[in-house]
Amino acid sequence: MNYLSDIEIAQQCKxxxxxxxxxxxxxxxxxxxxxxxxxxxxxxxxxxxxxxKPDGKLILVTAITPTPAGEGKTxxxxxxTDGLRKIGKNAVVALREPSxxxxxxxKGGAAGGGHAxxxxxEDINLHFTGDFHAxxxxxxxxxxxxxxxxxxxxxxxxxxxxxTWKRCVDMNDRQLRNIVDGxxxxxxxxxxxxxxxxxxxxxxxxxxCLASDILDLKARLGRIIVGYTYDGKPVTAHDLxxxxxxxxxxxxxxxxxxxxxxxxxxxxxxxxxxANIAHGCNSVxxxxxxxxxxxxxxxxxxxxxxxxAEKFLDIKCRLADLHPAAVVMVATVRALKYHGGVQKxxxxxxxxxxxxxxxxxxxxxVDNIMNVYGLPCVVAINAFPTDTKAELDxxxxxxxxKGVNVxxxxxxxxxxxxxxxxxxxxxxxxxxxxxFRQSYxxxxxxxxxxxxxxxxxxxxxxxxxxxxxxxxxxxxxxLGFAGLPICCAKTQYSFSDDPKLLGAPxxxxxTVRNLKVSAxxxxxxxxxxDIMTMPGLPKVPAAEKIDVDENGVISGLF
Length: 558
Prior knowledge:
Oligomer: single chain
Number of strands: 25
Radius of gyration: 23 Å
Strand content: 15-25%
Shape: globular
């Protein structure tokens, strides 16, 4: 059977004008700033006018540890929201914006798939409303002002060997990970080692996603630490008088974006930090706007539940005082067989033994959600035509034994209609009281918080800090940052810090090699294993297949 590609399905959609979608969402026109016919920004000041309106129920969509077989978290999020509307519920979805890095790298587009997508798909994947460009510009303005301050006499006494602020670009470009700049003579700058992060790993991205309004944004920007003086004192963006200009660049980027699903459901898409190297959630402002507009709000967190969901629950929910009502755990039979040792080429074949062997990965993620965080959970099996009844029955049986229900999600093929069964179960879970809590307390030491995440969420035997990380932990404690939450940068391919350890590994420790405070965002970043904050392109980049014709129609984008 020949299936249409995601982009072909999206291009066949007859989109509604964004003014119609705003009416469906309940957004008054006075708060709507149109970007053409099918995109708009929402003035976040609407939240002040709706302060007395009760919030809807917040539903988190997360997933098992990712594999080359794919899981379909965004697809499930979109299809579930459409499914909720099909069963008569006022539902909206709040998602992250795609980064150009994966779009042109391995993954391709990130706007859902099949008949569960957000549109205009090409715009969302390529530039959208310019938010990421604004974030990159603000990041690099700060870098330019920092180096200019040093060039112009260095009144603050900044030690060029202790500069922590990097430049950024929203592209996978390994060549820029480590560079030397300022070459060419006295008037060309001060020579020093430097480097680039991908924009989605920039602290500016995290700041934008956690700020509540323009004043909070400016205060957070001012707190960003860019380096240290010769006597070890932190230097901030405020010390460089940079936060006002940075906030001016981000003024419009702070406003959430409104688009639609293929079925005309309102979708708030805003911010896009990666979950393996950053905190992995869409913006607080978009989530709060969505909670005022919908009785049910579906949101997702990046990569697997040990990364995106952990950061959503331990960082975003804590800092924004959010209380989720239910969690959806996305899995595929194919991915579970991969965790059970089956090679990608053989995943279409029924293999109950491998499926059973791979199930502990799913069950460990579910156990974390239910027993560490105290939240009700449903497993959504993202259906593939090759799934057999025996395989689906085995997944359901093993999940039922853990006290969690399983629902087949057929949203890729059927859109909202294929998500109705999942929607019914989600509504049932949302009506249950829950005992939501975080995995650690903020008054613990940095080491204790790291240990809690590694032991309780990753199921490691413990955490090992390198000598450099131990010194950094002591320094951050001395500077008064020990009370911040932790944002772990870790491989997405394993519960451990070793991407080759599939399933639910035991008997390992996690090594933290670097600790860095993101004082503006309000968390400490812990780099584990070989994780990089600037990805590289694969041997065959997705960019090689992307094209545009004489009519401006894009092809090959997922």
